[in-house]
Amino acid sequence: MTHDGRAADAGYLALPRRVEAAAIGALLAVSLLAWVGTIDDAHSMHGMAMGLGQLGTRVQGPMGVTLFLAMWITMMTAMMLPAVAPTVLAHLAIARRRGDGFGPTLVFVGGYLLVWSAIGIVPLAGFTALSRFDADAAPPHLIPALAGAIIAAAGAYQFTPWKRRCLEHCRSPFAFVAHHDFGGGARSALRAGIVHGAYCLGCCWALMLVLLAVGLMNLAWMAGLFVLIYVEKTWRYGLALARIAGLALIALGVAIAVRPALLELVSR
Predict the structure, then answer these.
(1) Which of 13, 131, 211, 222 fits 93 for a cystine, CB–CB 3.0-4.6 Å?
(2) For residue 195, which of 176, 222, 220 has the smallest C-alpha distance?
(3) Are 52 and 143 in contact (CB under 8 A)?
(4) How many angstroms separate the CA atoms of 268 and 263, rounded?
(5) Poorest-confidence range of 19-23, 56-60, 133-137?
(6) Residue 13 confidence (pLDDT) above 70
(7) Domain total for the chain?
(8) Rounded CA gap, 131 and 107, in Å?
(9) How far is it, in rounded angstroms, from Cα 133 to Cα 139?
């Protein structure tokens, strides 16, 4: 797209400041509340082994499906909602131009979060496997090697065409909404939210996989990934940052495989 095209899009997407401020404020408020809930969950589950790096040093045990999924949905709302703000604003601007109001955009956000909620069955399966894993019977280097491989694989994914394509969709809010919510209305908004959630999942799933190695409720890693995901999607050099992060994760994964003691250190 040319510079003039971007300028035209910016004008087309212009929202009254009070509307933009209200929308951003609502997204941040919901995210903040979710972070409060996530921090509370992390403290209450501090003694549980929630990742490979915590096996042998914390208590292993099952967690109810409802409780786990509630924890996961809260965590994803906290981590992902601010990063989707540009696309939400683009959707709201187009909806307002059609005279639809805020309703379809709320449905759009609901569809987006629905994808991240549904994918919670994958970390649930991983946590269930961890809760039943016999760490004492495993070869001493197996757990660090597996954790290192997961982290390095997440880093390698940052260089794939799938990552680039999905990130490009996430970084082009106007183009995405124009191509996926043309019909307007709640049904179209729900479909667009689900599709955008799928692209976002394609962009970020490998980064979330890192939590299986260092702990699903590891607040330091959650905060770091939150910042990385947000900057990847909103900064003009987001793709370059994604690749730098990929190199760092590959290096960390290799280092953990070579120096197993590092796994416990990064999983605290």
Answers:
(1) 13
(2) 176
(3) yes
(4) 9
(5) 133-137
(6) no
(7) 1
(8) 36
(9) 12
